Structures are given as C-alpha cells and as structure tokens.
Amino acid sequence: MQIKYTLQGLLIYLSALFFAATLTVCLTLWAGRKRNRQREVHRDIERLKKGFWFAGFLTAVVSLAWRGLHTGHPPMQNLFEFFLCMAAFLWPLSRLSRWKQGIDTTLCDSFLGLIILIPAGFIFDESVRRLPPALQSPLFVPHVASYVIGYIMLARAALVAAPLFLRLERRRLLLLECASRQITAVGFLLITIGLLLGSLWGKLCWSHYWQWDPKETWSLATWMLYGTYFHLRYRYGLRYPRLLAALLWIGLLFVILTLTWINLSRLFKGMHTYA
Amino acid sequence: MKRFLNIITGPVVAAVFCLLLSGGSIFLAFKGSQSSCVLMSTPPALGFSALVLLLLAVRGVLTLFRRRFDSAILHLGCALVVAGWLWGVVESRRVAAARPDHSAMMNMLHSNGETGKTRAPLSGSMALAEGDVMNSLWEGTYLDQFVGKLDFSVKLDRFAIEYYEGSEHDRMQGRMPPIKEYCSRVIVSEPGKDTFTRDIRVNQPVRIGDYLVYQMSWGQSTNRQNQPVTYTVLKFVRDPGLRIVYAGFTMLFIGIVLFTGKVIRMVPQIEEVDRAD
Fold first, then answer.
1. Angle between helical axes of A241-259 and A140-161 (0-180°, round to 10)
2. Contacting residues of B for A271, CB less than 8 Å apart
3. How many angstroms away from the CA of A14 is the closest CA of chain B?
4. A97-101, B73-77, B251-255 — which is least confidently predicted?
5. Which of A259-273, B39-53, B59-73 has the lowest mean pLDDT?
6. Taking Cα atoms as reference points, which of B142, B117, B158, B150 lies closest to residue B236?
C-alpha cells in the first residue's frame, strides 16, 4: 500500500474520483428510480452522470497516454500498465453496449473502473522498465490488447448477469440473459484471439506454441470454463438461469486469479512473470 | 448409431469434458511447466487427448452435415490443433525411443561424418563461443546430454549484446543499462553445399534445414586458458505437427468469429421488448 505522489498517480486518483462520482450518481438514480420518472430533475442528474463518466474516461486516457510517453513503449508491459489500459477501455465498451444492445451499463462499468484503479493507484509499482528483447515483437500489442478488452468484457458480462440470481419477471430475465451472453461471446472471441496470438508468439520467442506455463494453463482453464457455459446454454436454454450466471461469476473469478495470483505468487513460476 | 454418436458428442458430454479439461489445466498450473510437459507426454494423457480429438472430430463432421458451419469449423479446428500437438509429442517419443544406448551415442558423437541410422532429434541446443564450430545437439540444464547430430555444422562468427542508452542514474550507480537485443551471427556449412550466414535474434528465429533456430540464452564462462568467454545458446527445433496446428488455429479463429457473429445478432425471443429498459 503506497500513495503515488507523481503526475501519474494524480491522474489515476482523479480518474478514480470521477468513476466514484459516476457510481454515486448511478446509485442515487437507482435508489430513487420510482420517484424520478416524472421529475425534471431526473434529466439533469442523468446529464451529470454522463459528464462524470466521460470525464473519468478522459482522465484515464490521459493517464495511459502519459504512461506511454513516459516509458517510451506501448503501456502494456506489466500489471500496472495492464490495469491502466483496462480503465481506459471501459467507457467505449459501455457506449457500445448502449448503442448496440440498448442497455445502460454505466452502474456496473463505473464500479468496475473504481475496482480496477484501486490496485493501480495503491498497490502496483509504477517504476519504469525498458522492454526486454523477448517483449519486442509485433505481437506484443495485439496479444495484450485482446486480453485487456476480453477480460473487461467477461467481467462486465458477470456484472450484467448478476440480477439473474434474483427472481425476475420473464421479460427482464430474457433481456439481461441475452445481453450478458452477447457480452460474453465478444469477450470469449477476444480471449481466443489472445490465446492464439500468444501461441504464435510463443512459437517465435520460446520455440514452442504451448509450454504448459502456469499462465497458459490458467488461460486455457478460463477458456474451457466459458466453453462449458456456451455448451450448457445451447443445450438447456433458459431453464437454469442461475447456473449460467454462476458460471459467468466463476469465469470472473478465474480472470481475477489469472491476473493477480498467477502473476504475483511464487507458487506459479513461469515465463509470464512480471514485476 | 447416429443417435448414439449424437449423444456421446452432444453438448452435455462436451460441457462435462470442458469442465474436466478446465480442472485438469488448473492442476497442471500447480504442477509447473516442466512436470506438466512430462505428464502430458505419458501414455494415459496421450490416450485421453486422442479421445478428445475423436469426439471433437466426430462432432465437427456431424454438425457439418447439419449445416451449422460455425460450430463445425470451430470443432474441427480444435480437433486439428489437438491432432497436430499429438503428432509432435508422439514423434518426439518415438525419436527418444529409437535413440541408441550411451556408448553408441558417444561413438556417434566422436565419429566424423555419418550420423548413422538414428532419426534427427526434434529439439536440442548448443552453446557456442565466438569461433566455435559444432554439429551436435545437447539437452539438460547444463547441456551435457548428447541427443544427436546435425547434417550441417554451425560456426559462431559473432555474438553481440546491444544495450539501451544508459540513464544518468545507471551511470552514477555504475550499473550496465538494460539489454535491448541479443544477436548471434552464424556461418552454416554443409558438405557439398555453399556456406551461408544468418543473424539469429530473440523473437526472430531462422530456418536452417528442417530446423528453426532460436536465440535462447547466453552466459559467461572460462576457456582452457582460463580466459573469460561469452557464449550464446542456440536452440534447434523441428515440429512435424506444426502446420496442422496452424491450420487448426486458422479454423478455430474463423469458427469463433462466425459463432460470435451469430450470438451477437440474436435478440430475446419475445415480442415487443422495450429495448431501452
């Protein structure tokens, strides 16, 4: 636990503050959802929410860009940079959901942004390292970027699917299940691309496309888990919505473990060890 | 018969297999890279992989007949990846089994010319200092197990380590700046053919004969005159199943794109859904 007294740290805290403000406004709106429908105030609060959310996105992008300029390489080398990337990608994906799926996911996305920025702001080390020879590859950016976006999508899918645990009216159940499945499908596509690009890169760099490295096997486990989800959804449809939601939450747990425990623990020594 | 195949390759069995493989992967993550590699080339693991391959292939063909192309391409792609991997592992086991005993290997190492009747090894490394010439491949932590000979010999012309421009901080502390690149320049000569020169860098393997040659490692040691020398470690790998695996990757990618396209175009199956709920 350390506070970063640098411009980088300031940008991270500012962006976390904006995400927290967005979250607060979202929760206020949610708490008063029955009363607010008729009021003029509602529109102003809605506007405030959008403003905070966009400001959070802007500061996250500026903090990522600053990191990139400061280090002189694409900011995707270690966990600190990975988490900054995730925070910067949230707003566009949230807009995409609004635009393509017609659902408002600002509540869960701003929550996710806050959760992501806490380790980036207080735990991970921000010291700069030059890219070692192994990371200098044209596959570096696509491999990491597809995992960044893929993991965010899978996390969002779990959050969107959370109400499936409750008793819902039929229409809302269908809507949420469909939305979470679509988000999961895009996330699954991206982690597949990440896995394949990682394999190709492994062949170029480590001489084999599959080394049974702990991080590789955990990624495969995550991939297989989402495979289970799609097979069960295909077979049973909406008969067990809680099972589907539970699988998405276990998937999120796997993603969190892959990102943190596997990277940081000495239990899993492998080639994917970062600072 | 078809009904039976439909059930044993159906989504429920597939879900169970996915869960099993997921759990198995986590188990292997705890075992670590090297022991997982050994474990996965034992006959039971290979047999299980062959079963998975069979189920995937049958399911792929069945769905192809039903014209569900996304699912068919996806499953056949997975089958190809497993098949290519299996071929590579089985081949390396066969090469290891055909390897003669220790004394015969030593004779082979010290004889000139003919590599004998043994198969060329699938992988092996050599450590070279500048000016060294070598045509044998080695294994083990200290590269002390001889695994076979190459048809060509490799001479290390030059091994260069390129550094980043050092920062002021590094210079004050008397530290070397971080390493930017390793490069081994080798001269390859094969009897009856022209010699040629190649630069081998990290992330840029070079094809020599059947092998891809990698810049794997480096180190410092002393020679017979007790002078310090820097050596480079080059790894030679050939994988007969690689093309099949890559074909599988391509199909898997196409299949998953089609599948995702299908899922994101779906809408909830009720009328008059207020989408901006």
1. 140
2. 33
3. 30
4. A97-101
5. A259-273
6. B150
User: Can you tell me the mean pLDDT for B211-218?
Assistant: 93
CB contact under 8 A, A235 and B201: no
Q: What angle do CA B236, B237, B243 make, to 5 degrees?
A: 150
- Is B33 in contact with A211 (Cβ distance < 8 A)? yes
| ipTM of the modeled complex | 0.92
The answer to whether B269 contacts A174, with C-beta atoms less than 8 Å apart, is: yes
The predicted structure's pLDDT at residue A24: 95
Percent of chain B with pLDDT over 90: 59
Q: Does residue B116 have a pLDDT over 60?
A: no
Predicted pLDDT at A39: 67
Residues of A in contact with B181 (CB under 8 A): 133, 136
Residues in chain A closer than 8 A to B89 (CB atoms): none
Q: What is the 3-state secondary structure (H, E, C) of chain B?
A: CHHHHHHHCCHHHHHHHHHHHHHHHHHHHHHCHHHHHHHCCCHHHHHHHHHHHHHHHHHHHHHHHCCCHHHHHHHHHHHHHHHHHHHHHHHHHHHHHCCCCHHHHHHHHHCCCCCCCCCCCCEEEEEEECCCEEEEEEECCCCCEEEEEEEEEEEEEEEEEEECCCCHHHHHHCCCCCEEEEEEEEEEECCCCCCEEEEEECCECEEECCEEEEEEEEEEEECCCCCEEEEEEEEEECCCCHHHHHHHHHHHHHHHHHHHHHHHCCCCCCCCCCCCC
With respect to CATH, is domain B123-237 assigned 3.20.20?
Answer: no
Q: Check CB contact under 8 Å for B123 and A231.
A: no
Which among B18, B254, B258, B273 is the top mutation candidate for probing chain A, defined by the most A β-carbons within 10 Å of its own β-carbon? B18
Q: Which residues contact B153 (CB under 8 A, 6 or more apart)?
A: B133, B134, B135, B188, B189, B190
**Residues lower than pLDDT 50 in chain A:** 275
Three-state secondary structure call for residue A136: coil
Paired tokens of B121: 């090894």
Q: Is A75 helix (H, G, I), strand (E, B) or coil?
A: coil
The residue in chain B having the minimum alpha-carbon distance to the alpha carbon of residue A233 is B11
Across the interface, whether the CB atoms of B203 and A209 are under 8 A apart is answered no
Residue to test with chain A: of B264, B267, B269, B271, most A Cβ within 10 A = B264
